[in-house]
Amino acid sequence: MDWQTPEESVPSSMITEDLARALMGKPPATGAWRDGDKPGNRQFAGLGAFEPERGGRLPFVRIAFETFGELSPERDNAILIIHAFTGDSHVRGEAGPGHYTAGWWSELVGPGLAIDTDRYHVVVPNILGGCQGSTGPASFAPDGREWGERFPYLTVRDQVRAQALLADHLGIDRWNAVIGGSMGGMHAIEWGVTHPERVARLAVLAAPAAISADQIGSNLTQLQAITMDPGWAQGRYYDADDGEGPHAGLALARRIAMLSYRAPDELNARFDRIWQSSISPLGDGGRFALESYLDFHGNKFTRRFDANSYLTLLQAMNSHDVGRDRGGVEAALARVTAPTLVLGIDSDRLFPVETQHRIAAGVPRALDGDTATVINSIYGHDGFLIEFPAVGAAITRLLSTEP
Question: Is 182 labeled as catalytic in the residue annotation?
Answer without folding.
Answer: yes
